[in-house]
Amino acid sequence: MRRWRKKRRIFKSKVRIKAKKRVLKEEKITRGVSPLVEKYWLQRYDLFWRYDEGIKLDEEGWFSVTPEEIAVGHAQRCTGAGVVIDCFAGVGGNAIQFARVCDHVVAIDIDPEKVALAMNNAKVYGVEDHIDFIVGDFFQLAPSLKGDVLFLSSPWGGPSYKMTKKFTLDSLKPKDGHSLFQVAQKITPHIIMYLPRNVDLLEVEQLSWLSSPPLDIEIEGNTVRGHFKAITVYFGDAAITQLCLPRTLSGAACKVCI
Ligand code: MGP
Ligand code: SAH
């Protein structure tokens, strides 16, 4: 009799667990997000404070967008700047914040779907008139671009970027970090790079030494609610705190704040 009761209890709890799983699955379907996106969806208000007002993202957008608090920090560095070019604009996380403080923003993305999403999101924030959206390949467009500050947040190869202990610049997509930096420098030396938190910092510093003359550089750790999210590197005048930065032997200023 006791064994039978125990069996019945186990059966009932299994049924309950199955029902709970079904409800969770249904909830996910109603939210319209895949299991990969679920974790980022839970952070939606950190990504876009005005998420509920009509913000739209696709899968890559969910895991790549710069959280709003970090994007605001990037933009503050460019307050009053003339033209900022967001070379890999995605769903507009950065472009929107730049548009709030700069004269004009050029937002480029190779994926037409991303540009459509970024335009929609810029409308939600009421800044669409301050942004020129371009569908195109940054590397092809580069020779014809003119701007005061360049923002580079290229793909890192998806959320698996953190599987490796040290993320090297050659893992950046679609071209390695050195080539990307060289192309960018031909447009302006005032460059901001948004990079993985496990990026090889020595390699990053080398980018400034390899420039001629060496560029001032500031490396900043980015957190949201105390969670270490990414690293931002400011080069040239974008490293605006340069006046109080220690000078290296090369003559360039260098500050690391992580
Ligand atoms: P994450 O590490 O995938 O998220 O991305 P989280 O919540 O820190 O995950 P955890 O499990 O490690 O705690 C952190 C941040 O990096 C995201 O919010 C994006 O801003 C940025 N990011 C991530 N990826 C994969 C990319 C990318 O490919 N390109 C760019 N530009 N940014 C990315
Ligand atoms: N900072 C953005 C996220 C950028 S994710 C935000 O906050 O929303 C990187 C983006 O680079 C992706 O949207 C991808 O479509 C785009 N991309 C990849 N290769 C590109 C290229 N050659 N030129 C321009 N954009 C490219």
Q: Roughly what percent helix?
A: 25-40%
Please report the total strand number as a whole number.
Answer: 8
Identify the bound ligands.
7-methyl-guanosine-5'-triphosphate, S-adenosyl-L-homocysteine
Kindly estimate the percentage of residues that lie in beta strands according to DSSP.
15-25%
Mean pLDDT: 90
Instruction: Show unreliable segments.
Output: none
Query: What order do the strands of the largest sheet run in, or round the barrel if closed?
Result: 3-2-1-4-5-7-6-8
**How many H/I helical runs?**
10
Radius of gyration: 22 Å
String of helices and strands: HHHHHEHEHEHEHEHEEE
Note the main sheet: 8 strands, mixed
- Assign the structural class, choosing from mainly alpha, mainly beta, alpha/beta, alpha+beta, or little secondary structure: alpha/beta
What is the 3D form? elongated
Instruction: Tell me the span between the first and last alpha carbons.
Output: 64 Å
